[in-house]
Description:
Order of helices and strands: HHHH
Radius of gyration: 25 Å
Number of strands: 0
Structural class: mainly alpha
Low-confidence stretches: 18-22, 25-29
Mean pLDDT: 80
Helix content: 40-55%
Largest sheet: none
Amino acid sequence: MELEYTDTPVAASTDQTFTTTSEARGYYDTTAEGAASDMVAVLLSILPGLGHIYKGYRLIGVLLLFVGTPMSVALALLIATGTAGFGFFLLPVYWIAVMVHVWAIPDRIAPTVSDEGEEY
């Protein structure tokens, strides 16, 4: 005679799957609640600094917005006076560099821990 307990929780499987997680296969490592979108951050960087603020880097974003961008515009104007206007080509270089940087940095946005759901 064998006894079977039906009200006990099922033991977790110890089998390891050797599949790789990738976005192409539909698997994601993070949830949408705690991740900032890289493309939204790049689009916000049309005004340099806003993408950094969106991804959680507030100090860098404010410095880029109020210090870095005015300094780069002033420097481009200064260089443009001595190079027959070619100094203005520095502005797109700065702009693209800020966009690439905000795309490459990891998110600092964390999900709120106020609601953890039901715990047993």
